[in-house]
Amino acid sequence: WLLRQGRFAEAHAIVHRYFGPHVLLGDEVATATHKHIKTLFSSRYWRRTAFNSVFFVCLVIPWFVIYTWLPTIAQTIGLEDALTASLMLNALLIVGALLGLVLTHLLAHRKFLLGSFLLLAATLVVMACLPSGSSLTLLLFVLFSTTISAVSNLVGILPAESFPTDIRSLGVGFATAMSRLGAAVSTGLLPWVLAQWGMQVTLLILAAVLLVGFVVTWLWAPETKALPLVAAGNVGGANEHSVSV
């Protein structure tokens, strides 16, 4: 209430008195909005909405498709034992997640995401071109699994940093909903795609999805690393890298 009245000094004094000097109170005051879904598609926010929805979808589609149907896919790359494949996958995902924590801290978020999309797409393209059972295919699968687990740390960061406080929950919720929809549709379509065109074409389609994520990230992703949450959600600020199309 004090912040809304512009009485910042009094608000800070209360926080200091009851919580101590180690707790800081930001001066951001949420701007009143209708919080309608249309707000996300206004001229001010639609690029942020498109970026977060599309990059999220483009990461979860190959993730859910490959790992939901892991036993079938594992056989095509020479892993006959489903239990071995599952154990290896879980180990790789743990390693990737831990590596992702380090990379998220060290690298610019935008560059981390761009580089990961390219690496993941290239990995799937090469896998599609190799003969079934190739030892190189197995190594590429290890690289793919580790990388996608690492970069997936960003799905918990970028959407929250891309919107101001008054519509943050709306923006994060919409992007997450789009990712669940994309995962459900793609996972359901996989058996049909595999039956119609085989594993090679399926991998190439997934690579194309990742390239779409790369293009959208390059066009509209802001750089939010090392920025306070208020500044990161400031559309049109110094962190903006959007390209008008």
Automatic annotation (TrEMBL):
> Is the keyword Zinc assigned to this protein?
no
| First-listed, main subcellular location of the protein, grouped into a coarse class | membrane
| UniProt keyword terms in alphabetical order | Cell membrane, Membrane, Transmembrane, Transmembrane helix
Enumerate the PROSITE patterns for this protein.
MFS (PS50850)
Transmembrane segment boundaries: 50-70, 82-103, 112-133, 139-158, 170-195, 201-221
- What's one Pfam family the UniProt record gives for this protein? Sugar_tr
Assigned GO CC terms? plasma membrane
Q: Does Transmembrane show up as a keyword for this record?
A: yes
| Domain Major facilitator superfamily (MFS) profile, first and last residues per copy | 1-225
Any idea where this protein resides? Membrane
Molecular function (GO) terms for this protein are:
carboxylic acid transmembrane transporter activity
- Using the record for this protein, list the coiled-coil segments as residue ranges, or answer none: none
How does the entry describe its membrane topology? Answer: Multi-pass membrane protein
Which SUPFAM superfamilies does this UniProt record tie to the protein?
Answer: MFS general substrate transporter
Q: What is this protein called in UniProt? A: MFS transporter
Which species expresses this protein natively? Escherichia coli
